[in-house]
Amino acid sequence: MAEKENLAPRLTRAAAKRAAAAPLATEPNHPTKRKRVALRELPSLSNAIVRPSPDLLLKPKIRSEEGETVMIEEKKKPSVDVGSDSESVDDPQICGHYASDIYQYLRSMEVEPKRRPVANYIETVQTDVTANMRGVLVDWLVEVAEEYKLVSDTLYLTVSYIDRFLSYNALNRQKLQLLGVSSMLIASKYEEISPPHVEDFCYITDNTYTKQEVVKMESDILKFLKFEMGNPTIKTFLRRFTKAAQEDSKFSNLSFEFLGSYLAELGLLDYGCVRFLPSVVAASAIFVARFTIDSESHPWSEKLQNCTGYKVSELKDCIQAIHDLQLSRKGSSWTAIREKYKQHRFKCVSLLQSHQEIPASYLHDIK
């Protein structure tokens, strides 16, 4: 008994020391209340929570003698041949030894029926949801992702969940936005370091839906997915293909990377692109990006063909679809992605002009 009495003061004193050493926290860390905004009425970024990029969180920084902050890993690396998977084996993050096997595994995953939406689900399954409604929803979700500073992988996964759920579940149009925010909630939990809370998604819909409704839809989606939330997306393949496409110095810059991302995101808007595999959309975005930057040279190459596994003839339909989206021949009323990539942080790539027609010779397989 005496031992217990002596132990209590020690615990109390230790707790007091820890409390004194800890940073002051006068109030709980509640998320900042944001202006509640309904669909199509989002502000630009006035109420956004600014979070550091995951890349900045993971990469240590040092300060040079000149006072500039530089990344420790920003050292010149040996040139790599992505097409032949001869990446630097000294960099464990590149996984040079396994890159080819990983890529083949991802390609096998993307064709699994459970991971693919039905190409014509609007016509065959939905009775109250149209392709245009889907486009409006995706366009709005792009703005939501910008508002909450979500990574692009979250957006791609969100659209994947939406299309797959709608492929097998008829939905009332009043519930379409609920499906969108619940899908983004799940994708955020899977991809983000600090995902928004359920209440944030309620506020962003101007409380059109209650917390209970969002959580119930989240549960329905997860049950439908059988809790298999991971999935190769367009972004998964775009990263690899961008490396291969930067074999020429004229393409080795941020503008080319942003342009590829811009064109790939445009592919999310078009219901007609649902029928294409994610790797096909990624490869087609690279083709159109190269054509936009240098229309005098053939956009494809043997190296890209080997890296992607696609001949131009296998990409032709998707290339034309993305080119039409770039020229606003389709989806001109959906402006969120175009406005997003007009920003200087994305090098204003949505303002780059592309030729009205892709020469027929470019759409033939290279020899």
Describe the structure.
With 367 residues, this protein is mainly α. It has two domains: 99-225, Cyclin A, domain 1, CATH 1.10.472; 234-363, Cyclin-like (Cyclin A, domain 1, Orthogonal Bundle), CATH 1.10.472. It is 50% helix and 2% strand. It has helices at residues 2-21, 54-58, 99-110, 121-124, 131-147, 152-166, 176-191, 198-204, 211-225, 234-245, 254-269, 278-293, 302-308, 312-326, 336-340, and strands at residues 61-63, 69-71. The chain has a two-stranded antiparallel sheet with strand order 1-2. Helix 10 (234-245) runs parallel beside helix 12. The protein is globular, with a radius of gyration of 24 Å. The termini are far apart. The model is unreliable at 1-19, 22-33 and 40-89 (pLDDT under 50).
